Amino acid sequence: MKKSARKKQVRPSKLNGLAVLRNRDAVADSDPIVSLNMLLHDELAERRKENALLEAQVLESEESIKAEREKMRLQKKQVDDEVIRLRQQIAARERKYSALRKEFQESTSWRLTRPVRKFGVLTRRARLLKATITSLFTRGGGLKQSVRKALEVYRREGWSGIRSRLRRHASDQSVLATHKLSGVALKPAQRAANLPLERRAFLAQSISPEVQVASELFTQADAQMRIAVVIHVFHLDVLPELLGRLDNIKVEHDVFMTVAPDKHEALRAWMAESSLDRRSVEIVQVDNGGYDILPFIKMLPRVIEGKYDLVCKLHTKKGLANLEKLYPEAGNAWLDLLLNPLMGSEEAVRQVLHAFATQPDLGMLGSADFYKSVRHLMYGNEVEVSRFVQLLQPSADPGQRWGFFAGSIFWSRPALLKGWLT
């Protein structure tokens, strides 16, 4: 009996200072510390397997990324090679076409037909000149009246004045800015000299004929538009003309006046003495930088935060060399031409509001007579304007034909001008 008992006895051994049973089935009968050690040992082995699996996955991912990069590099090389090949083809075709054009222009048939081509050009110019002169006489009230007006223009401005009026009249198109919120789009507008100046700015293909009778179509939606009027004040003697035209805006609107610090007190005194019955006007001191442009840009955040639907930008504009002083009978003709199409009458204002309310893609509106080509009137501002255009729209080409409102008086949606602030 003693011998058999000795055979069933389980002998423990020492491993790392802990008693470990040779028979794992006897763990339950061993010390709890030994049992915990066995569990930790098994968990460590499992974690090592997981780590080995993760390392294998990482290596596999790295190999896949390397293969993808190599594939993309080869594709880029193929594209670059294709671009080089196409450019070479284009250059070869241009050389071929240049040679063909030169050969054709040096041919006998081209030289023989030159008088015919020249005669055709002269004929077209003669027809245009005849139509222009006939139209001028018709507008001027007959030959005698037209000659009298031409002599008056020549006396004041010389031949340059005659030529500028002929060029202006010969052009049967004007332009109305319809700056879409996503970019700039210019649409032609037929010039109709016999219409009142107040309506000339609206003769665009983008504006439906119904807008021409906006006084009959003025809707509740038009009247509910929130309007901000921003006026930069420099010439105080011109301010009454602006405020008088604001009376044509019969819907509720807020007026903001910007003024240079050195003219602030004078404006305050003028407003205090004025008998004009106006709603409260907020006056903001702004440096007179960039004439009236910088003050307007500094007011834009206020306009945008106010969630206005439209902003009307005005300033106390005077003509070059104070034309109204030289010819008092003409008044401030420069300012009249800028303002009358936009707010010269209640009907003009209704047309503006109705146009913006019914045409979501209409972004900016000004006098068609003062919509000018940047490309032809860049002068010394070309470098700075080109840099500014690239900042606003990097994909744009500053050398393309696009326009601006000379005098910088216009109506606009504030959303169109957000790019100026970024």
Overview of this protein structure:
Residues 42-103 form a coiled coil. Keywords: Coiled coil. Among the domains are: 37-105; 216-421, Spore Coat Polysaccharide Biosynthesis Protein SpsA, Chain A (Alpha-Beta Complex), CATH 3.90.550. The strands form four sheets. A six-stranded mixed beta sheet has the order 7-6-5-8-12-9. Strands 1-2 form a two-stranded antiparallel ribbon. Strands 3-4 form a two-stranded antiparallel ribbon. Helix 4 (114-140) crosses helix 5 (143-157). The N and C termini lie far apart (100 Å). It is α/β, with parallel strands linked by helices and 422 residues long. Helix 10 (239-246) links the parallel strand 5 (227-233) and strand 6. It contains 16 helices and twelve strands. The chain has helices at 2-8, 32-105, 108-112, 114-140, 143-157, 159-170, 197-200, 214-217, 220-223, 239-246, 261-273, 293-305, 323-326, 333-343, 346-358, 382-392, and strands at residues 12-15, 18-21, 173-177, 186-190, 227-233, 253-259, 281-285, 310-315, 364-365, 371-373, 403-405, 410-412.
